[in-house]
Design goal:
Layout lengths: L1 H5 L7 E8 L4 E15 L2 E9 L5 E7 L9 E3 L8 H8 L6 H10 L9 E8 L1 H7 L10 E2 L5 H8 L3 H12 L6 E8 L3 H9 L4 E5 L1 H16 L3
Antiparallel strand pairs: 1-2, 1-5, 2-3, 3-4, 6-8, 6-9, 7-8
Helix pairs in contact: 5-6
Length: about 230
């Protein structure tokens, strides 16, 4: 409620709180400008701009149930604890907006809109695609594509020559009879990654190469459990 009340104040405000990082099992102090609230993955999130839990300046989504402070500390503009970059944005009238967040969410599949935007290419067995992929809602950018158009897509969108050639080789070795989809994702978004995992073994990630290699490693590790 305290966070929601900030939106009713004409000047807004910067907030300070202690936040639990699950991966490292430690608490850190956070000072950020709150922009909006989201409900995703069965949890509420605060989308905010400032110094994130890892010391980087920029956007971050904070799970509300991991804010461990009993009360948020509201800092007035001009408080010495506010990061200089954030104060400068306020002085210049350039604070981040909800509209920006919405625009970025539309550009790619993934709740963590501040992560790198990469091209996704998927291959499915045709029968599997008919039952579990076709006519499902993932993201506006996620669409079917004809096999004959895949190489053209890679030529246009992939800038790295080595990665481009690797993708073209993979595509050439695949069957035109399978079903193919493409779209744009936030590389590193856990929700997207979990969906790609769920599609195994009937779905193959062709691009991005970084996620393809990650899933190959996971599959090898899983198979090793049955040795």
């Amino acid at each position: 409620q305290q966070i929601e009340d900030l939106w009713h104040q004409s000047l807004g405000g910067v907030i300070k709180f202690k936040y639990w990082i699950a991966s490292s099992e430690k608490q850190v102090e956070i000072i950020v400008y709150p922009v909006c609230l989201h409900y995703a993955r069965r949890a509420k999130y605060l989308t905010a701009f400032g110094t994130d839990p890892f010391g980087n300046f920029g956007w971050h989504n904070y799970r509300l149930d991991r804010i461990v402070s009993e009360q948020l500390t509201i800092l007035k503009w001009g408080n010495s604890q506010i990061p200089k970059k954030l104060f400068k944005l306020w002085k210049e009238g350039k604070l981040p907006t909800v509209e920006y967040v919405e625009q970025e969410l539309e550009k790619a599949w993934g709740f963590n809109f501040y992560l790198p935007r990469d091209l996704l290419i998927m291959r499915f067995e045709s029968k599997f695609a008919r039952w579990y992929v076709d006519d499902t809602v993932r993201h506006p950018t996620f669409k079917p594509i004809k096999y004959q158009n895949l190489s053209k897509l890679v030529q246009k969108e992939i800038k790295n020559p080595q990665e481009k050639q690797q993708l073209l080789n993979i595509i050439q070795a695949r069957s035109p009879q399978d079903a193919y989809y493409y779209g744009w994702i936030r590389n590193g978004d856990i929700n997207v990654l979990m969906r790609l995992r769920d599609w195994r073994p009937k779905g193959e990630v062709i691009a991005p190469i970084s996620i393809r290699e990650k899933l190959i490693l996971e599959a090898e590790q899983e198979l090793a459990n049955y040795d």
